[in-house]
Structure formats: structure tokens, C-alpha cells
């Protein structure tokens, strides 16, 4: 099966999620010194929405392939928990944000690499694009984890880059 030849409905949820990711990226680029509380709140909302999407997408993949990609479900639940925590504990979120991002980048990228084999059967170009983004996210996550001071100093820019790439990825997935 090839996504290029198989008609599927436009994925509004992925499109809206991608647009939200890009909006967060623009905010991070325009005023990097702005309150991290707003960034934490936006990150919490985006993580919550993304988790809901991943749980929903897990069901679609399971119906399509007849097997359960458990990593996708685990990642969705983890995103929901992180999002809810950040929304209700903004002060703690600001202090832990570099670590949250590092762990999220690493786990999300590993999950993407593990499940990327599913994409290969649909579209090889999309597969390689996804693998490249996941490797980039993994490298960025490891750097953030081992250099938290650098992460704290460059957090707004790193947030912007990540959300811009993720936004483009989700918009591409919508079509």
C-alpha cells in the first residue's frame, strides 16, 4: 500500500496540532526572553493535545495493521501526563523544563525510530524524512540532558526549532 496512491481523508487533528506547534515556535523565536511560564503553559497544552492525538492515532494504526504499536500508546499516555503536570504546576515546570525537553525529545525520537518501520510500507520518502527528524531529535535530547546549563540558556530557541520541525511534520501528515 502506498499513501501516494491510496486516498485517505484529510487529518484535521494533525493539521491543527501542526499549526499550534508552529505558533509556539514563532512565539519562541520572536521574544526568547519572554516569560517561560507562558512557554511552559503552551508546552503543557501542546503535550496534552499531542498525547490525545497519539492515543487516537494508535487506534487507527491498530485497525489498519491488525496489531498494536504499544510504543505509540505509551508515548501518548506519557505526553498526556506531562502536559497535565505542566499545566497545573507551572513553577515546577519552569525549573524542570530543560530536563522535560531532553527526556521528551529522547523518548519521542526513540519511539519514532522504533515505529518508523511502519512508515516504510507506505511511503519511503516519508519514512526517511521521519527517520532524519527522529535522529535529529535524539541528538538534541542527549545534548540537552548532558548540558542543562546550555539548555537553560538556549531553551527558547531550541523550543522554537523543535516545534517548527514538529509542526511541519504534523501538517505533512495531515495531507
Write up this protein.
This protein has 175 residues and is mainly α. It has one domain (12-174). Helices cover 85% and strands 0% of the residues. The protein contains 6 helices and no strands. The chain has helices at residues 12-30, 36-65, 70-88, 90-120, 124-146, 148-174. Helix 3 (70-88) runs antiparallel to helix 4. The protein is globular, with a radius of gyration of 16 Å. It starts with 11 loop residues before the first helix and ends with a helix.
Binned strand content: under 5%
Count of DSSP-assigned helices: 6
The chain-level structural class is mainly alpha
Distance between the termini: 16 Å
Instruction: Enumerate the spans where pLDDT stays under 50 for 5 or more consecutive residues.
Output: none
Amino acid at each position: 500500500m502506498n499513501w501516494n496512491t491510496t486516498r485517505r481523508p484529510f487529518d484535521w487533528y494533525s493539521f491543527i496540532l501542526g499549526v499550534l506547534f508552529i505558533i509556539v515556535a514563532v512565539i519562541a523565536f520572536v521574544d526568547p526572553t519572554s516569560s517561560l511560564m507562558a512557554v511552559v503553559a503552551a508546552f503543557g497544552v501542546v503535550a496534552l493535545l499531542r498525547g490525545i492525538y497519539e492515543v487516537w492515532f494508535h487506534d487507527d494504526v491498530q485497525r489498519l495493521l491488525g496489531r498494536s504499536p504499544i510504543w505509540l500508546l505509551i508515548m501518548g499516555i506519557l505526553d498526556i501526563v506531562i502536559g497535565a503536570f505542566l499545566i497545573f504546576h507551572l513553577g515546577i515546570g519552569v525549573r524542570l523544563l530543560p530536563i522535560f525537553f531532553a527526556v521528551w525529545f529522547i523518548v519521542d525520537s526513540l519511539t519514532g525510530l522504533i515505529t518508523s518501520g511502519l512508515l516504510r510500507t507506505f511511503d519511503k520518502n516519508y519514512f526517511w524524512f521521519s527517520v532524519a527528524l527522529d535522529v535529529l531529535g535524539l541528538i538534541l535530547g542527549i545534548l540537552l540532558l548532558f548540558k542543562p546549563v546550555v539548555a537553560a540558556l538556549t531553551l527558547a530557541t531550541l523550543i522554537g526549532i523543535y516545534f517548527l520541525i514538529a509542526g511541519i511534520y504534523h501538517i505533512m501528515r495531515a495531507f
